[in-house]
Amino acid sequence: MLKNITCIDDLRQIHKRRVPKAFFDYADRGSYAEETLRANISDMSKLKFRQRILVDISKRSLETKILGEPASMPLILAPIGLTGMQHGDGEIHACRAAQKIGIPYTLSTMSICSIEDVAQNVEKPFWFQLYVMKDRGFVKALIERARNAARLC
Ligand SMILES: Cc1cc2nc3c(=O)[nH]c(=O)nc-3n(C[C@H](O)[C@H](O)[C@H](O)COP(=O)(O)O)c2cc1C
Known about the structure:
By secondary structure, the protein is mainly alpha-helical. It has helices at 8-18, 21-28, 35-45, 83-86, 90-101, 115-120, 136-149; strands spanning 64-66, 69-71, 106-107, 127-128.
């Protein structure tokens, strides 16, 4: 096991060792011919951080508002389907981590933990991502459950 995590690829290696291949591939690979995955990796690798020295950073803040709510930085955890398959209670852990750091968490429609399970185990309400399905009654019920979950936190 790696002692120190220094970059995303270190996390990738740990993930690979910890989960069955199908779960690793689900998160690691792209769809179809993986053209978009390759293009994204290539585009992102061109972005560089410019190092500066002797600059006072003691008063820098990334705080902002997202949809009117205060956030510690302009980031959200996007919905990731089947998170609970990668790690037991994965959705709860991810939501707790987001809330601890002060950014919104989005629960995917395709989650392992139920909306209520997550709500009962976190401090604050979270976002819910909805896949609109043909069965509108089912979709309506999901919206209702997401709305009610805010009262369980
Ligand atoms: C493994 C995986 C699972 C995802 N599952 C969902 C999902 O269930 N619902 C959804 O709306 N988006 C899903 N997405 C899309 C992400 O939420 C996100 O929008 C996308 O990865 C782009 O994020 P970025 O702008 O940070 O690169 C998934 C992405 C990945 C890589």
